[in-house]
Amino acid sequence: MINYKPVSISKASFAFCRFGVAILVWLSFLLKSEVILGLVCLIFLLSAILKVKRAPMIRLCDVTINRIKKAPEVLVDENSIFFAHLVGLFFSLICLALVLFIDKNSVWYSVLILAILKTVAAFGFCPASKLYNCVLNGNCCVNNNKNGTSLSC
To answer: pLDDT tens-digit profile of 110-122?
Structure first.
């Protein structure tokens, strides 16, 4: 079992990061912009290297919006978010490579899939974080049936 490593960050910064990256991925898809997609890759890379407390989008919000109005803190699992950033980096790099080297409009649908996944994550159900918790911590979702036994989903 991997240890839970709690980190306290601003709730507003966490939301800004999640929704900001999702918006950037959508802009990349809608504008067919390799530059914006490259920026998303860079954000994921720096977030993985610097960890969640010092991630670029978190810091950007901390030095701007949070200076005006301080938001409450939220505890997050640094290890889970690190894994999610690595997965985001992996998928965004695949999308960028497809867009740069295949040069067909159809490859932009890979960016659409990334945008959908990132939007789902922005609204609180991060598939990569859930996968991390399920596989490494055995913290998979469990439903109780009418007999009182647990069933994994």
So the answer is: 999 999 999 998 8
